[in-house]
Amino acid sequence: MNQAATLRPAANAAQARARMILHGPVLPTILKLAAPNLVVMLAQALANFLESYYVGLIGVDALAGAALVFPLVMLLMMMSGGGIGGGISSAVARALGAGQQDKADALALHAVVIGLALGLLCSVILLAGGPAIYRAMGGEGAGLAAALAYSNAIFIGAVFLWLMNCLSSVLRGSGNMLLPAAVMTGGIPMLLVLSPVLIFGVGPLPGLGIAGAGLALASYYLLATVVLLISLLRGRGGVQLSLKHPLRRALFAEILGVGAWSSLNTVFSNLCVVVSTFFVARTSMEALAGFGLGIRIEYLQIPIVFGIGTGLVAMVGMNMGAGQVARARRIAWTGALVAAAVTETVGLAAALFPEAWLRLFTSDPQAIATGAVYLRTVAPAYGFLGLGLALYFAAQGTGRMIVPMLAGVSRFVVLALGCSLMAWLYPGNIHALCAALTVALVVYAALMSLPWLGARR
Question: Model-level pTM?
């Protein structure tokens, strides 16, 4: 069988996905594209839950260390998957929407180059600058030592995290959500076994403590990268990775024109967590541990919206590429309202039953009290987070990132000024700090809605 015959089923599947995205009913198509990604996110949420459980067994200091590192792990995940990854998906989707298959294939190679370069850069920065970063965030003593052990183990494999998400983004840009979902979900069982083995040891293998949790994550990124790379080289995902395409400045610019602004937006989003973590860390390490457990539920909303949002990037991007602007706008609002409904449901459940979550990881009364304050105050506003993030993904599909950037900066400014003011007026008051986080979420959603108002037709 020749290569053309081998690739024909993949080409037919890609054409069917394009027809569905350009002409199918909006809500069912969004849900169909979102379903594989949501399965991935739920699997990763389970892995995150179990890792938090294992780290909690080590002690409060380990939880505090993980709370310091977690914003940076999520920053890289968001930059590589939703930031630069969004730029990759947007460029691929618009190329395919315009009928430019060769350009989409060339974009895949440019995505790999970008992933390699940024992954190596992040490894160097975080391995060298970790001590200074975590001290600046309020880390000290045993909590700081745990943070460094965890951080160094994870970020030695940062390049694989970047490549995993860049390769997945190429596939998602073509509307192929199933292949990256299968690869990333398939690695979760390995992670769930490897993590406790490396943390606590087994037989003659000594336990590595919190560093074992970091090494398990790095191994997961490596495995997923290898499988995705092989799939794209064989052209089984609707886009084929090949070295035959020359590197072109215009294609780098097309990806980074969306991806760089999106990545900067994710930096401000994570700086919101860093700033709030800084103020909470000034109270106690126990309070920081509880706050870190509470805010993990907020971070879990991001993967949920990501599952919907990656479908929005592909759908909005292809429809914009095909000149179907009104349909693209309808897609954006439909996806945003679905995301808001899901995240608000999770937020209300967390606010009503905060201790049910927190007691899974710790019995420390101060940690539980702090986490409960956060969940009761901020979680009811998660619907605004879902709405704003979904419209952010839709904006990536259009290639226009000015308003999302302004919205992200505004959220950070409101939060930073609010936390500073609350810390001055009410020193050590966690309720006041959490109120500032809530106001910032409402401001973000309001600003993200502006470009889409009146566009529901």
Answer: 0.73
